[in-house]
Amino acid sequence: MWPVRRIVGESLLGVLLGLLGAGLEALDTNSVVQIVAVGLAAALLSPVRRVLPATVLLVAAVGSSVFIGSSVFIGSSVFIGLAPLVLLAAWSAGRRIDGVGRAVATFGFAYVLTLGLSVLREPRFSLSLLVFTALWLLVAIVVPGLAGRYSSQRRTLTDTLREYNAQLLRERAMIAGQARIRERQRIAQDMHDSLGHQLALISVHTGALEVDRELTGRQREAVGVLREASVAAMHELREVVGLLRDGTEAPGHGGASQALEAMGEEDAKAPSRGVAGIDGLVEASRGAGAAVQLRRSGEPRPLAPTADHAAYRVAQEGLTNAHKHAPGATITIELRYEPDSLVVEVANGPAPESADAGRSTVSGGQGLTGLGERTRLIGGMVHAGPTAEGGFRLAGVLPYTSPQGGLPSPSPSGAAPTFVDPAGDFREQIPAGSLGEGDPVIDWNGMPKELAKAMNRDKKRSGIAIGCGVAALIGLALVVAVVVGAFLFISEADKAMIEPKQYDAVKVGQSEKEVRDRLPGGDSFLTDGLDKGAPPEPEGSKCVSLMSTESGSSWDKDPVFRFCFKDGKLIEKRSFEVKN
């Protein structure tokens, strides 16, 4: 079913062709019935060309006969008002006729039939007339058809290349995705086997120390804090391994895996890693002997899971850096609920002089880099730098609603998330809405026939190759015809046209032989029809009508010079205009 836009466009085009056809027909006839009939025929045949392109082309070409020469052929009218429809029908047929063979046969038949009708209805046949008719038919029928064919094949080829490029991008995305999955699984295996084992050992040893009777209460409390930290690290490691494995469980063998299962059964649920979990971070740091203050301002508002987790990571990273680089310094954590975002700020003063500032600390500088990337993906930002008092400040600005495409929630519930940034994915190269990860791979066997032929590299004679070859040959023939036609037109003009000064130089009473030696013979198809509307010839005379090199008084009139002879002498010369 056609969309409304196409229906309106076809209707307007039909009305335009109908009006144009009626106007052209009015120039050739005074019959109102014929003018209206031709206009209606052009308007009605215009939309039909989409369904029956070959039929409409033949009807329009034969009906108009490309308006060459006279307007009467074997007692039936030639409707020149259908001429604009010929151009449109030829272009449409070139686009819509399937198969090169059918297109060549249709256009060849229309060309030969119209050429024959145009030549046969001329009273005087000449080689020049044949060349001009053939040349004009090339322009009126073949050239629009080639243009339509080229447009159709170019669109087919463009669509093919677009689909092929989309398939390559999908395959590339699939390969990249598989490579990412393998790399995540390798990283997850290494983390599970190495880091998981070390954390399990720490948890076991701290658990044993916690029940040692020789420890004092403060020492036992410190060991408890250490054990809780190891338990939290074990839970985070489990979720990270699960995320890297795209939701698959960690292997069920090895000491680290058994320790993870044991910690999940024996210990309480891991602390929340959102804004609500910042209190736990503060308590843990205070239990380790650090002076930490937590301040809140503004009306608390819910955050997206990604922003909630990022707030926890900002506070955690700030506390970690303060413990590592400024042990013993006062730490302040501030949560400010702004109208459009949450500001998490962690600031610490300078380290006390009594602290062992020269101790070795391990810092790869990756924590702030990863934190900045995490906040950037959710539409936020991170700032880190020294303070005027000699301390350090880390602040993160986190929007309440994360843009689509950010990092997923670290919660293991729901669909398996991924650490890959979608902005760097190969699928982003494909326009949204047309292609995607879920689109099926192209089935080349189910493609249209011409499209499959165009993409078949094994067939040397594909439709596009043949079309281009035929277009090249016709283009070459057209160039040759133009050159030959120009030469013949000049020769025909020499036979049928004179200048006004030649007309003035001839005097009445001169001998016929003398006058004919000065004038061209007039034996040309250009002089056909010059006697229509001309004044009556003198009785018993034989006249020659020639065209003038000058233009007439109006666009629809041609100046004519007529010379009439009788008894071997020029008895009359006359200048007048006829309707062209």
Structural notes for this entry:
With 580 residues, the protein is an alpha+beta fold. The protein is built from 15 helices and 11 strands. It has helices at residues 4-28, 32-48, 53-64, 83-96, 100-120, 127-210, 217-244, 255-266, 278-287, 305-325, 366-377, 449-455, 463-496, 500-505, 512-518, and strands spanning 72-73, 76-77, 292-297, 331-337, 341-348, 381-386, 392-399, 497-498, 542-548, 557-566, 569-579. The strands form 3 sheets. It has a 5-stranded mixed β-sheet with strand order 3-4-5-7-6. Strand 3, helix 10 (305-325) and strand 4 (331-337) form a beta-alpha-beta unit. Residues 66-77, 248-270, 405-451 and 457-461 have low confidence and may be disordered.
Summarize the entry for a quick read.
53% of the residues lie in helices and 12% in strands. With 580 residues, it is an alpha+beta fold.
Q: Which tags fit this structure?
A:
single chain, 580 residues, alpha+beta, five-stranded mixed β-sheet, four-stranded mixed β-sheet, 15 helices, rod-shaped
